Amino acid sequence: MGDSYKCYKKRGILVEEYFKNGVLARYLVVDGTFVCASEFTKPYVVGNGEDSIEELFKQKNELRKANPHLHGVQLSFSEVYKKNIKKQGYTLSSVLEDGKKLVLDYKANPHAGSDTIDITDSIHPLFKKVAEDAAKAIPNLTVAGIDLLAHNHSVAPDKNNYRIIEINHRPGLAGHIYPMYGSPRDVIEVVGEHILKTCRVENLKKLLNTQNNELLNSRHQKINIDDPVIKNERNQYDFRFESDTELIKNEFKKENYTGFFMEDFFNLYINDTLISIQGSLTSIFSFYAKRLIENSYRSRELLLEDGLVVSDGDFFKPNEKAKALKYANKFDMHVRLEYRKRKIEITSAKAFDKMWKKLSRKYKKHKPRKGIKKNGILITNAYLDDVKARYLIIDGRCVGVIQYITSKNWEIETYNITPYVHPELIILAEKAAKIVVGIDILGVDIVSKNHFKDPKKQVMLL
After folding, report:
1. Which of 236, 327, 449, 450 has the fewest CB neighbours in a 10 Å radius?
2. 177 and 216 assigned to the same domain
3. In terms of pTM, does the model score above 0.70?
């Protein structure tokens, strides 16, 4: 089977109908509104009655070299091209009749040799609506490229004359700016306006300059977490829940919102907008922000640039084990090793060696995207003698703080310390949550000797 059929998941292999005689076009939709569209032709050459197919290839490549979008993708004599040329009764040395169009491949894609043609002005209005509806079907997909096959994009759509084959969440823009034929479209201005609107610059400035007065003005109480009376006041619950998503679903249900599950995502409509929720991760959370937050190197850099203090740590390549071991010994081997999403705290040289081998294998297997560097395995001080608390931030505001304590039988216990936390720590947690625009719900973990004292008078780390 072809490569397109090798894309499968647990459900098995996806088999789709073959839609005959379709013309492929990429529709760009921003903020739910159609912007423009480009047709992707099947790769082809046209005869002039004089030159061989091989020479026509060279002429076509010269045209592509002059295009800012296609200059890096030249037609090549691939096996697929040769096979299709032969199937139509020609060879590379054959001279095509004047005006004869020879299709080289039946896969339409600019990177496979397609020409790009702007068809924005000739599209039927209802096809624009089809593209807009497709983008709106995916929660919070604000910039989308809808790949649509149609017999004729200028004729009103019906169930028999078109198929949506793909939705792209990071569509290329250059094909619209530099089409090979047709009118160039200034999509950068449209996307730029979308970014400014999304960032809500004025609101953001206001947010950064205001404080969480509700929590900050609340009574800052003092508490002794080791007080036997407090320890004996353990909360008792007569129910269990499967996940955070289930809890959130139940709260919406109380407010008469109905939704539906798609795998482990809970989906519901709010003011005609579809929102998806998985635990505390929502479809409002920016893809860009998520990528930055999950990257230990980038998130540490952003926190440091904002003048915030982070855990002592450094990055080491797999061949720097001796250097990394020496660094870990600085903290009596009470460190955390981390690479990408895999992390673990260790307390011995034996555990270090075992984890180093695992992360080194993960490092070597990892193939980052073009232009992205691998920064190495991160080793940070685990601060096992200090106290960790998680500050829950929603829309830039701290709404609650949970302190984690390991009991004598090594169980993790949680204490709600929200009323007792020092106001300066709340300000720091909220500042940390604002390092990237596009975050709606975030947990900021802070390590401190005492979360009830002024952080300026003690060591405090994010």
Report:
1. 236
2. no
3. no
